[in-house]
Design a protein that fits this description.
The protein is mostly helical. The chain has one domain. It has 10 helices and no strands. Helix 2 runs antiparallel to helix 10 (180-202). The termini are far apart. 41% of the residues are buried. The mean pLDDT is 82. GO terms for molecular function: amino acid transmembrane transporter activity. Keywords: Cell membrane, Membrane, Transmembrane, Transmembrane helix.
Length: 204
């Protein structure tokens, strides 16, 4: 029970801390509507499972013992954040309340972007590795480890679904779309800043 509480608190603190996932879900929700925001939340939850899988199967040990591989993963994740930020910063497509509804293709794109943002996110990588090495007891069963991993995914899905619902509300979407250039720039700069912070941290 103590271990479960520790995992729950660890996960809660990691999920609600601002980061690339939050910025990406916010943009999907206000720009394309609730369906896209919720799809992005599902993508993030699936992305968490990538980190859980290689951690539980022991690849995390290899990563932690290979500075070059670890650095490569951090640079790849940082580069993707900078890429997303650049896209938002240079976006020239104007949104309207009538034309901002998500199509099936844009919903799938939001899901894919959510998945890649999280799967390539060094913050989530470090969170999952830390949870299993610092909180979960050594020798725990594989079934229990994957159950903890499923809990982490569900927690991410629930939190970012709430974020999606909030930022896709009609009044807030209207206000954000009316200030689209400013919102896109703020989100773009936030993503680029997060990406550069990851890269700089990795070079120390």
């Amino acid at each position: 029970m103590t271990e479960l509480i520790a995992v729950a608190l660890f996960t809660l603190l990691a999920v609600i801390s601002p980061g690339a996932d939050f910025a990406m879900v916010t943009r999907s929700s206000y720009a394309q509507g609730r369906k896209a925001g919720l799809a992005a939340a599902v993508g993030i939850a699936l992305g968490v499972q990538v980190h859980v899988l290689y951690t539980v199967l022991g690849i995390a040990v290899i990563i932690s013992q290979s500075p070059t591989l670890f650095m490569g993963m951090k640079v790849l994740g940082a580069g993707y954040l900078v890429y997303l930020g650049y896209q938002s910063l240079t976006n020239t497509r104007r949104l309207t309340l009538d034309g901002a509804a998500a199509s099936a293709a844009s919903v799938m794109q939001a899901l894919r972007t959510g998945f890649l943002t999280n799967a390539l996110n060094p913050k989530t990588m470090l969170f999952v590795i830390s949870a299993f090495t610092q909180v979960v007891q050594p020798g725990s069963s594989l079934a229990l480890d994957f159950a903890y991993g499923a809990f982490m995914s569900v927690a991410h899905w629930l939190w970012f679904s709430l974020v999606a619902v909030f930022f896709s509300s009609a009044a807030l979407r209207k206000a954000m779309i009316e200030r689209q250039r400013l919102v896109d720039r703020v989100i773009g700069l936030a993503l680029i800043g997060l990406g550069l912070a990851v890269a700089v941290t990795g070079m120390r």
